[in-house]
Amino acid sequence: MVQPTIGAILAGGLARRLGGGDKTLRGVGGRSVLTRLIDRLTPRVTRVVLNANDDPGRFAFLGLPIVADSLPDHPGPLAGVLAVLEWAATEAPGIAWVMTVPCDTPFLPSDLAERLHAARIRDGATIVCAASAGRTHPVIALWPVALAAALRRAVADEGIRRVGQFTGRYPCSVVDWGIDPVDPFFNVNTSEDLAEADRLATIHPGL
Length: 207
Fold this sequence. Notes:
Elements: E1 5-10, E2 27-28, E3 31-32, H1 33-41, E4 47-51, E5 66-67, H2 77-91, E6 97-102, H3 112-123, E7 127-132, E8 135-144, H4 148-157, H5 163-167, E9 172-177, H6 191-203
Helix pairs in contact: 2-4
């Protein structure tokens, strides 16, 4: 059984390669990427939250907690991780783990939380990241809430921006997923990616 875990969707970026706006609200297979993520996460985690900046009202229809970055100037995905860790420490003090996923991965695997936790226990890891096709996805990861203060120091005081720079300081495990029939961590960054994701969702409606 998975330990109590916050599932956090990181949507704090600027989506420049898709022309701005909320790429997580773009449609894939007749549903928004965000809806697909929420549907996939909800049965597997204790609570789902959304990290998003600017006007939170545009996501009010979801009925989810909206957590803005606690650092200014969009310093990158670590700022979103930090915001959610700090939110969890205050608003969900009984939950020790946060699992983060980016807002642009429409085919997220249903066993993500289970496998990340299993690797953490097996390896005695502090942080666990997902991987596929020979590539590690450091934003798709399991984080202990207890790292919030250390992460704030790293980002705010040391200027750390790359996720791997921070995770490399701790025992970190990597869990690999297969890519048949589709890479479960396919991400939508461009209009071409969006068209390909829509095509894949049509061919594989069970994704």
